[in-house]
Amino acid sequence: MKKLYLVDVSAMFFRAFYAIRPLTSPSGVPVNAIYGFLSMIIKLLKEENPEYLVFCYDRKEPSFRKELYADYKAHRSDMPEDLAKQVPYIKQLADVLGVPSYEIPGYEADDIIGGLTKWGRHHDMEVFIVSGDKDFGQLIQDHVYLYDTMKDVKYDAKGVFEKWGIRPDQFIDYLAIVGDASDNVPGVKGIGEKGAIKLLEQFKTLEDIYENIDKVEGKSVKEKLIASKENAFLSKKLVTIETNVAVSDDYNSYRLKPFKTEELKALLHELNFKTFEKSLFGTVSDAPATSLIRPAAVKRASQVKEATPAVSATLVITKEDRTFREGTTTTRDLAEFLSEGQILWGLSDTRGVFVGTETDVMEVSDFEYLGKLTDTFQIRWSGYDLKSFWHKIGAKTPVAGWDSQLAAYVLKAGDTSDFKEIYSKYMAENLPELLSPSELYNSHRNLAATLLNELRNVGSEKVYEEIDLPLVKVLLSMERLGVRIDKELLAQQSAELTEEIASLEKQIHSEAGESFNVGSPKQLGVILFEKLKLPVGKKTKTGYSTGEDVLSSLEHPIAKLILQWRELSKLKSTYVDALPTMISPKDDRVHTSFNQALTTTGRLSSTAPNLQNIPIRTLRGQKVREAFVAAPRMKLLSVDYSQIELRILAHISEDPNLIKAFQEDLDIHAATAAEVFGVPLNEVTSNQRRSAKAVNFGIAYGQGAFGLAENLGIPRGEAKDIIERYFTRFKGVKDYIEGTTKLAHEKGYVETLFGRRRYIDELKSSNNMLKKFGERAAINAPIQGTASDLVKKAMIEVFEKVPVRMLLQVHDELIFEGTEEDLNKHTQQLVHIMENVAKLKVPLKVNYEIGNNWNESH
């Protein structure tokens, strides 16, 4: 959701005046209120990174409330002289900071905020009212918050109740009763906050109170209410924030604009705010490695072959420095000088969208038209997080020239979403809080040049150019397509789960011998370890640990019931109830976001919804997959790599027995059991196969005897014996584990088959547990990382060559949508690509199925 921040200027300005000690500028002007207000705004800009921010002002002339009540605000004293002198600077600050301002004759700032809050919610925005004024409690609702920046607190409906003892929908009635001395709102004379809360707990609204006046407890309270009835209803009108205020319907009216660098610097200098000058502007210096970067054409993924020169040959580095001409342009003006394959930089921050050329950096307002130009001219974009930029401008078939976010991710896998953080890491300096468009452009180009040099230094250009960069447009297409959800089926599942959860809760209470909140770890700990006297696994700072590992170790029926309750509760809240709320009204589909630069493993992840964690081994999890359905007259196709990580292990370890099993297309777990237990393949028992399967999957994660014993529920000695027999028969795997661990300690990293590095920082730790974790990660990373790279390479090639709609990627599985005729026509080509995307010492194999929903096709 987009976020809209509405600043109650008068309230925040007054608070700053009284909170900051007296300060004066060199010319003798008081500046403490300006200083405090600017501090608050800078904190807001830094921590919230708002895209939409509005300063809302009161006006000098009376509001409509004066017509309702002549004495409204009659007792207000004049503004302190030292504060009055500072008022003109606030609007000046708004202008140079690029913050939109709003004032409307006849209305107070509160009413403007009320109108903009209503507008924001109508447009599905989250609204944050920046004020310390409790009157805004009446506006709080879902996705509307009261944000007190000085106390650093955001109040939602629950917070309002905890703070004032009143629900937001009762706040107007509460204020009508207690009145407001500062605004001369009379209220009910003699009844204060506690009395108002007590009345509203009983009668809910002011109207209910007077309709049931005979039921009011206490003669004195009743008399006060009767005596002040007229004032009570007058006060209700006076304290009600007007929300039907005519405001602009143009989003750009509320968007932050680029700040005016020279004017802002001059104002800060005039006020002698040296600290702000330094923190806001600083300097964007050139580090030794920083030079400007000009991306050349990027080949289509289908054209990229093993012998293709990597990034170093397709990008040109220059040493020159540039001062770019800043300006604002319409996108239609921009179109006049575009040509096929034009190279542009796309920059986006909370203050707008900027396009960089070799000479200019321009703010562009018409995003949609820019997206159309992108597709028409096949513009080659460079920037940071291109996918998000393309979504913002609505591009459908864009071309990626350079993405610094992905370059940083290839250099070291992890969360690289924060541009400023990555800039600081590689440029060895912090960016100022505010950057002009030209400075922003230079910082992006300089970082890109540094990252490119780093890619060359470590030999990671090929991974970046052949896997990560071409995948961006594939993920963009998948996110735009989305997947259809069966709302009715989920509603039915939600009802069923509600009953199952309630039944489990009853059984849990029965086992416990009393009712308690099953979702409270604290209450659960008391029941398990104090009342039932079960063995305590471990304790935390806040009490007993009730994690899954602890519950799984308890030999009591209640533990299994709680685990079932948690699983169903999480499934219901995370998917069954949440998925319908994520359906887009535009196309009736859910659009997940694929995170390409987040995980340390190299795998993709997804959010809103997270599709990677839907349980597939449980019946309930499979039912959730039934709700992912094909569009009318279409089907879904699932193509899933078979035991891809074990096949990669066979290839990397070069173990002859593993290779033989896959080459002969044997049941790998049965074949492993036959080797480990020394029995013919056709005599392997189900228990032997189960043990072998646990070893096969555990080995790739560095699992030892303790883990295997826990997994299989067998003595540690027996588990140790199974592992020793495994290593005897699969010596190549043992050599791989020992060799990889040793190499990881020496180099500090491991690599996938394609050269993607995974740095293992835990190996440097003095903590033995962390070091052991690092060793397990080192064993697994080349396997899991290679599997991830293979899937990505397959996605790129399928996207380029097969005309079917790719919707989802979940680990080793790809989901497609099309007519049954088209899917049948192209499935074999698709399977061929996936099975031949790389040549290993064992064959790659995929399974596929066509169905009406994800579960049927899985």
UniProtKB/TrEMBL annotation:
Segments forming domain 5'-3' exonuclease: 2-257
Record-linked InterPro entries: 5-3_exonucl_a-hlix_arch_N (IPR020046), 5-3_exonuclease (IPR002421), 5-3_exonuclease_C_sf (IPR036279), DNA-dir_DNA_pol_A_CS (IPR019760), DNA-dir_DNA_pol_A_palm_dom (IPR001098), DNA/RNA_pol_sf (IPR043502), DNA_polI_H3TH (IPR020045), DNA_polymerase_1 (IPR018320)
Coiled-coil stretches: 487-514
Gene Ontology MF: a single term: DNA-directed DNA polymerase activity
EC number(s) given by UniProt: 2.7.7.7
Keywords per UniProt: Coiled coil, DNA damage, DNA repair, DNA replication, DNA-binding, DNA-directed DNA polymerase, Exonuclease, Hydrolase, Nuclease, Nucleotidyltransferase, Transferase
Catalytic activity: DNA(n) + a 2'-deoxyribonucleoside 5'-triphosphate = DNA(n+1) + diphosphate
Residue span, DNA-directed DNA polymerase family A palm domain: 621-822
Signal peptide per UniProt: none
Protein name per its UniProtKB record: DNA polymerase I
